[in-house]
Design a protein that fits this description.
Radius of gyration: 19 Å
Strand content: 5-15%
Keywords: Repeat
Largest sheet: 5 strands, parallel
CATH class of the largest domain: Alpha Beta
GO molecular function, one term: carbohydrate derivative binding
Number of domains: 2
Shape: globular
Distance between the termini: 42 Å
Structural class: alpha/beta
Number of strands: 10
CATH topology of the largest domain: Rossmann fold
Number of helices: 16
Order of helices and strands: HHHEHEHEHEHEHHHHEHEHEHEHEH
CATH superfamily of the largest domain: Glucose-6-phosphate isomerase like protein, domain 1
Protein name: Glutamine-fructose-6-phosphate transaminase
Strand order of the largest sheet: 2-1-3-4-5
């Protein structure tokens, strides 16, 4: 009898072109409202946990690159546990939560609002506490997500974060190019066979390093998280720069490296090629997700990535990683729909 493992996750991965198109169409018309709310405030804090934290990292890069705004991750524990008193009267607090019901995130945004911040929620929960309490809610159009690993809600969060950053930066060209993302995601769904071939190579691996530089780092960290939660793999998601400051010693013949890169990001391309050479010199297998031909030439297995501007590439770039996660979990005899010890909404004490 055919296994049903991962059937829900597979369906939700396949729904992403429609999810992204609907989210773009819903949120892009809010660009003027976003700018009006932000006004002349030039400091942004990003409140998130788990997968949403990886979407927040994308926001850090995009806000700096295309809006000239320094965005930093908030530490929800400062308000939830330490009750720190911080003046946020010059700040915009962006809280990111798929459900909008994670108490720590809701409370941290509410605390920021009480301390003077203007607040923006990024959530899939239109009627959630997070959406109700925010000054502006950017509600994604992912529909209900049933599998525990976030796939379509994550890519929808990336779209929302992109709209936010590009609206603040008045980047009309890139806002218009969001129309190209659904088709790019559809093409990435065609990498299923290549992802399965890589999964077969990784079937018996117990630990690995997933690494990137720049905008693609959000994809590397999200992919590492997915491998941890669905494949029970000790996957470490690191900046390529941080990797070379000591952790590269982890790599050996039993610990492969998976390098993640946009094919169009010339700023990081030379460094990623050199990083691949260093990883290979350690005796590790080197695999590549995305990247240009020079990086691909150093790979044992390469899974192609999207051909989009580097600012937008992280949205479709995660899709081959999701397909890899699905295939590897199945190869290990696991059901990625329901990873052990996890629930759809995580509450932290």
């Amino acid at each position: 009898m055919e296994s049903t493992a991962g059937r829900v996750m597979a369906r939700e991965i396949a729904e992403q072109p429609a999810t992204i198109e609907a989210t773009v169409n819903r949120l892009r018309p809010l660009a003027e409202e976003i700018r009006a709310l932000v006004g002349d405030r030039r400091r942004v804090i990003l409140i998130a946990r788990g997968t949403s934290d990886n979407a927040a990292l994308y926001g850090q890069y995009l806000l700096a690159l295309r809006a000239g705004v320094l965005a930093v991750p908030a530490s929800p524990s400062l308000s939830a546990l330490y009750r720190a008193e911080v003046d946020l009267s010059d700040t915009v607090a962006v809280a990111i939560s798929q459900s909008g019901g994670t108490e720590e995130i809701v409370e941290a945004m509410h605390d920021a609002k009480q301390r003077g911040a203007r607040t923006i929620a990024v959530t899939n929960g239109a009627d959630s506490p997070l959406a109700r309490d925010a000054d502006l809610a950017l509600v994604t159009a992912a529909g209900r997500e049933l599998a525990v690993p976030a796939t379509k809600t994550y890519s929808a969060q990336l779209v929302a974060v992109a709209v936010l950053a590009l609206a603040i930066g008045q980047e009309r060209r890139l806002l218009d190019q969001l129309d190209d993302v659904p088709e790019a995601v559809s093409r990435m769904l065609g990498t299923e066979d290549a992802a399965a071939a890589l999964a077969d190579r990784l079937r018996d691996v117990e630990r690995m390093v997933v690494t990137a530089r720049g905008l693609a780092l959000t994809t590397a960290r999200e992919l590492a998280l997915k491998l941890q939660e669905t494949c029970h793999l000790a996957a470490v998601g690191l900046s390529g720069a941080d990797l070379q400051h000591g952790p590269i010693a982890m790599l050996d013949a039993r610990t492969p490296a998976l390098l993640v890169a946009s094919a169009t990001d010339s700023a990081v391309a030379p460094g990623m090629v050199e990083l691949a050479r260093r990883c290979r010199a350690s005796g590790a297998d080197v695999h590549v997700l995305g990247g240009d031909d020079a990086l691909g030439a150093l790979a044992d297995v390469r899974v192609a990535g999207p051909d989009l501007p580097p600012e937008l590439a992280p949205i479709p770039l995660i899709v081959p990683g999701q397909l890899l996660t699905l295939a590897l979990a199945r190869a290990k005899g696991l059901d990625p729909d329901t990873p052990r010890g996890l629930n759809k909404v995580t509450q932290t004490a």
